[in-house]
Design goal:
By secondary structure, this protein is α/β, with parallel strands linked by helices. The protein folds into 2 domains: 46 residues, no CATH class; 119 residues, Immunoglobulin-like (Sandwich), CATH 2.60.40. Bound molecules: copper (I) ion. Copper (I) ion binds next to loops.
Length: 168
Amino acid sequence: MALDLSRRQFLKTLSMVGGLAVGGSLVAACGGGEATPAPAGGGDAPKPEVKLEIGSKGEELLYDKDTLTAPAGSRITLTFKNNSTALQHNWVLIKPGTNEQVANDALAAGEAKGYLKENDPNVLAHTKMVNAGESDTITFDAPAKGQYPYICTFPGHHVLMKGTLTIE
Ligand code: CU1
């Protein structure tokens, strides 16, 4: 019995060492951004593709989904459908805490810019301003794990027309 235990302990130690070695090399491969850059297109597994769909809620200033979820590291294809018969809407993913800022900058950008500031650093992804009854599909890489607000930047809509995308 004692012998059996120590043998098991020995094997366990071996596997731990093995695990550490594997873990260590993984850390080196992932963490060494400058020292060992990953070769471009070099055999990495393709990003998981995720399809998300969201719409506006009838004639209300609301999305039909308050929450969306996607895994970290995924490539997201999102379709936004404007279900209104009269209003324009968009879907804009923004950095946390920038709701008012993005909305104000969108208002300043005006109708000619589709109510969105050009190259807004607070905007992570966005559809175009979508006319009533139409839709727009965009593709973007999921940001880092976390919770990100999405809003409509048509003047006045962002106060009600918002939700949260969780990257997990
Ligand atoms: Cu809107």
